[in-house]
Design a protein that fits this description.
Largest sheet: 7 strands, parallel
Radius of gyration: 21 Å
CATH topology of the largest domain: Rossmann fold
Number of domains: 2
Distance between the termini: 12 Å
CATH class of the largest domain: Alpha Beta
Strand content: 15-25%
CATH architecture of the largest domain: 3-Layer(aba) Sandwich
CATH superfamily of the largest domain: Glycogen Phosphorylase B
Number of strands: 13
Strand order of the largest sheet: 3-2-1-4-5-6-7
Shape: elongated
Number of helices: 15
Order of helices and strands: EHEEHEHEHEHEHHEHEHEHEHEHEHHH
């Protein structure tokens, strides 16, 4: 098949990892895969299986960017694209226009988040051959919103490269990691990964850190993630919070990590304090790394974690419960190890090969 993936993303995240894994996997399956991205997109370096000439830079400014829509239409026509697959809401109308101008192509939409769509997007989605939800929770939201006919909705759970995380785990040297990060050898490490935004709960993570430190003064906390807010407002606020709370010696704010798998392996406890998660890619990654997980009861976390078996779940925004759950695992290494091992086994269902194959099957179906 000739397939075009479209994303106007400007910062790395779960949706971008999904697109890169999908595009690279489809290319390895022998398909002719193209990508339309912004000039400064973080995806360019991730699309390793695509020939450079198959990656096109377009402004993709917003849902009403008519020049980009026309350029996409020309790209589809020139390369005889059969599948046009858009991943961000602002790209849906541009992709829909390109397909309208090329009736032999089919429009596929992936919905990565739980937020409701506006009227413009409802019109766009009516033209989609299929809407893919990255989790059962997203699929349920789409059906409840009646944004698109139920028969057009398919759930393809997000996937991760499990082998990569297992490989890092096998080679990982924790003492070397602690030295390189200038952390004491007896450190107990608790960390969280995600874009720096209030919805990811880094504020609650810091409040819980204060409580955990009362019982475990050798605990250290790591916050990894990019800040896409204007002027890095969110990061600056977290830095102020860390300083005001006298946490400077116990919290590292490290930005984006190229090899986040090493961080997962180093952690005693991984925390997802999110207010909302459509799936929770970082939770699945931590599980695949053999790390014990504490997560808030978002839709995505409930779908991934078997509470008390493969992780601990706490109410959203409940700092005391979050701190108690982290402390419970820090204090009981046997329970922590048992839960981490169960999580690693359970993560097998989130393999990226399964995600690629299920998406590929949908492409074939809509082309019949």
């Amino acid at each position: 098949m000739k397939i075009l993936q479209i994303s106007s993303a400007q910062a790395p995240g779960g949706g971008e990892r999904h697109l890169a894994d999908l595009a690279n996997g489809l290319a390895r399956h022998g398909h002719d895969v193209y990508a339309a991205i912004r000039p400064t997109s973080p995806l360019r370096s991730e699309l390793s299986a695509l020939p450079a000439e198959n990656i096109t830079s377009l402004p993709l400014r917003n849902a009403l960017d008519a020049p980009s829509a026309r350029d996409l239409s020309k790209l589809v026509r020139k390369n005889r694209i059969q599948i046009v697959h858009a991943h961000m809401a602002r790209d849906y109308p541009l992709a829909a226009y390109a397909v309208r101008q090329n009736p032999e192509a089919r429009l596929i939409i992936t919905r990565h988040v739980l937020f409701s769509l506006n009227r413009l997007h409802r019109i766009t989605l009516s033209q989609a051959a299929r809407v893919i939800a990255v989790s059962g929770a997203v699929g349920s939201q789409l059906r409840a919103d009646q944004t698109v006919p139920a028969e057009k909705i398919s759930v393809v759970q997000n996937g991760i490269d499990i082998a990569r995380f297992e490989d890092v785990r096998q080679r990982f040297d924790r003492q070397r990691f602690l030295r390189s990060w200038q952390l004491p050898e007896n450190s107990m490490l608790v960390g969280t990964v995600g874009e720096l935004t209030p919805l990811k709960g880094q504020e609650e993570f810091l409040q819980a850190a204060l409580e955990v430190l009362k019982q475990y003064p050798n605990a250290h906390f790591i916050i990894a993630g990019m800040d896409s807010s204007p002027g890095n407002k969110n990061r600056l606020e977290l830095e102020r919070r860390i300083e005001r709370s006298n946490l400077t010696g116990h919290v590292k704010l490290v930005g984006w990590l190229e090899n986040v798998a090493e961080l997962y392996c180093a952690l005693d406890v991984f925390v997802s304090a999110s207010h909302t998660e459509s799936f929770g890619l970082v939770i699945a990654e931590a599980m695949a790394s053999g790390t014990a997980v504490v997560a808030t009861e978002t839709e995505g976390a409930r779908e991934i974690i078997r509470a008390g078996d493969t992780g601990l779940l706490v109410p959203i925004g409940a700092v005391e419960n979050l701190a108690a759950a982290v402390s419970e695992l820090l204090q009981d290494p046997i329970k922590r190890a048992r839960m981490a091992a169960a999580a690693q086994v359970a993560s097998a269902q989130f393999g990226v090969d399964r995600m690629i194959e299920e998406t590929e099957k949908i492409y074939f179906e809509v082309l019949k």
